[in-house]
Sequence to fold (219 residues):
Amino acid sequence: MLRGDFHMHTHFSSDCMVDPADLVQRCIDVGLNCIAVTDHNSLGGALAVKAIAPFMVITGEEVRSTEGEITALFITEEIPKWLTPMETVKRIRDQGGLVSIPHPHDPFRSSPLTTQGIEEVIPHADIVEAFNARVTLARHNSRGRQIAKEHHLLATAVSDAHTLGELGRCYTELPEFDGTPEGFKAALAEAHLVERAANPLVHVYSTINKLRRKFFRTP
Fold:
């Protein structure tokens, strides 16, 4: 079985300071052996991690559309932000990628897809985050599970990690697969979700990192 986490960040995201090499070592230390790196509006972190990781890395990006964030998995070219949801989905599909809906209906963030965005994307989505460790209240994670059930979408449990300490607490157990999008979907259909919430204080680190980048131009 693989221990997977399909939403995490590196310093290619403005609210994260994690170095790709440190992320790889942490994954090894906690037993994660199939991951997707999904930096905000950047493919750079995923490519950097994939180049050095001794385990399977799915190249991804958390793309900010005009109606909120959409996660692209198995892409090879960066998708620009501020496109409409449907144009974002089209560009993911044009690359043979998969569409995942991250942290749906989390009211404590400004980035989730709006109700309109979800309605537009759902018919074209493959995956929904049934559990995101950074969602503060359990009832808001339940919306992800509800969407997955109602619309027959594949479900994941993800850390959405912006710090090394978040990696390994929450993950998706799934069978080994051939590394293709279709193989991934087949494996997710047999997945077991391990759900452990992160400490809500992790959001403070993200805010601090944004401020450091803004005022101190930290690389």
Summary: Helices lie at 20-30, 44-52, 85-94, 115-121, 138-151, 181-188, 202-216.
